[in-house]
Design a protein that fits this description.
With about 290 residues, the chain is mostly helical. It folds into two domains: about 45 residues; about 220 residues, no CATH class. The protein is about 75% helix and about 0% strand. The longest helix is centred in the N-terminal third of the chain and has 35 residues.
Length: about 290
Amino acid sequence: MTEVDPKADPDSPSTNPAHVIENAAIAIEHRVEAARQGALEITPLVSVARRLPWWGHVRRFWPFLLIAIVALAFIASGAWRQLRLDALAQNFQALQSWSSAHPLLARLSLVLMIAGIIAIGMPGAVVLVVAGGMFFGSLPAAAYSLLGDGLGASLLFLAARRAMDDGDGSPSSALVARLRQGYAEHPISYALFLRLVPVFPFGAVSVALTWLGASYRLFIATSMLGILPSLLVYAALGAGLADAIAHHESIGTAALGQPKFLLPLIALGLLSLVPVLFGLRRTPRVPR
């Protein structure tokens, strides 16, 4: 029996034009179906993008934009130059007279200035705390400073949380995953550690705690508790400086050996040792 060559058979599927067209149509239908499925998958994203114009995406960041504008205005005005201890000492008599004449306004101004400095993330809050200690005493100044710190930190926390609220909590690296896992296991310890150590910038810690997913209640509680020791130290230093300036004493090496300066400095040094102690406690013992 002689085999028929399919190439010579006009009814063969590979040579019949009808079969070729049919196969091509099937392939096109598969491609169209795949494209339709892909379109269905991105339809929700497209609808969201259409509902949110470009300014809708920026709307999340308007608190940060406002903070940036205030910070630039603060720098351009040159007011930051007054947030120095030497400027404070030069204007001590005038500021003391004004605070004595307007006690309520002076205390309110201290709270609002500290809150503003903390909210815009600028340095200088320490000088304001020292100034509060000079004019109001250690404990009252620490209390006013604590109120200002809490207010400023709250504003920065809420602004950061609004900017970071993108619905994506997935970590972007192994380090990020480790930090978030450690925070999730010990949130109070992490937050207190960041607040207690005076080497960490206050504003940066506020943003970091927001990024780690801290609740506002935990944030404000650990912020107030963690910053209080440093505030007491700086306010005590301010009270000692006020006494020295009032008695026209020079702030030299000998003066720093007095208890009113030495004790706050020792306390500040102990606070700076917190990271070392924390690292020693977490270092695993090597078996011998």
